[in-house]
Amino acid sequence: MDKIGVLVTHKPLPYLEQELTRRGCRLFRLWESPESRRLEFCRENSSEIRAIVGNSNFGADAATIDALPKLEIVASFSVGLDKVDLPKCKERGIRVTNTPDVLTDDVADLAIGLTISVMRRIPSADKYARSGAWKKGEYTLTTRFSGKRVGILGLGRIGLAIAKRAEAFDCPISYYSRSEKPHPNYTYYSTPVDLASNCDILVVACALTEETRHIVNRAVIDALGPKGVLINIGRGPHVDEPELVAALVEGRLGGAGLDVFENEPHVPEELFALDNVVLVPHVASATIETRTAMADLVLGNLEAHFLKKPLLTAVV
């Protein structure tokens, strides 16, 4: 990949940046430009940029693609592709890849971790012990996870991995997806509201599309109810955030564990004081092992494209 121009939309993993540089790529660091100048930056360097490395927050929209007439491939450092204009890429013949599978286990692990943290109120209990409040009395009783009914929105790779982990806790599994899956031990519901009505914990694990944007709305939240827990390790826009905040503040929802938010990195401040809410900064795949494997997939796809070999994880 010697001297190939690569537009990097976000500050990358140091390993990925080092490996791109070692392979002779010329990196164009879009994140270093003011947001108001980013299209201009692309146009100024359009004669050299043949690839984009993006992620779940900064991909390749239509305007960026139009500004890069020599663009050949978008290699996303993520599974989600809602920040890539796929129709535009197909129209231009631009290849698109992502990084599936390698992050499945870490995301599923975090989903279970968030669930237990919310139900056992681990962050709040930690603060209780650290503050010395334990000396004044025992901590409040919490709720067990084992045996609770777990509902999953989206039974893809990650949804299945979450289901298998929850089964180890003797949790009955139900799910909603576009069609019923060949998993007879899991109960299928044809609407998100029906699913929420029949589970104690609702986990969002589907892809973000126009159909799944705000799939968790007020009706779903109310169906989950004041004893229910919502876990979102999908994408922020899956959930109608103002409705979620209102339900938690008003006590219409029992709790929430959130890795993603509608306007990251902005988190609704109303949630900060709630002991039944656990907030983490979009870290589901953020382990050394997984991020390195994701970087290797990005590198492998770029190398395959420019060596005219089959892509490792082609989307387009």
UniProtKB/TrEMBL annotation:
Any single GO molecular-function term of the entry would be: NAD binding
Natural source organism: Rhynchospora pubera
Q: Name one GO cellular component term.
A: cytosol
Q: Which residues form the D-isomer specific 2-hydroxyacid dehydrogenase catalytic domain?
A: 18-315
**Record keyword NADP present:** yes
Q: Which UniProt keywords apply?
A: NAD, NADP, Oxidoreductase
Q: Does the keyword Oxidoreductase apply?
A: yes
Check the record and name the CDD domains matching this protein: HPPR
User: Which SUPFAM superfamilies is this protein grouped with?
Assistant: Formate/glycerate dehydrogenase catalytic domain-like, NAD(P)-binding Rossmann-fold domains
A Pfam entry, by short name: 2-Hacid_dh_C
Q: Which family does it belong to?
A: Belongs to the D-isomer specific 2-hydroxyacid dehydrogenase family.
Under which name does UniProt file this protein?
Glyoxylate reductase
The family database entries (Gene3D superfamilies) matched by this protein are listed as: NAD(P)-binding Rossmann-like Domain
> Boundaries of each D-isomer specific 2-hydroxyacid dehydrogenase NAD-binding domain copy?
113-284
The record ties this protein, via InterPro entries, to: D-isomer_2-hydroxyacid_DH, D-isomer_2_OHA_DH_cat_dom, D-isomer_DH_CS1, D-isomer_DH_NAD-bd, NAD(P)-bd_dom_sf
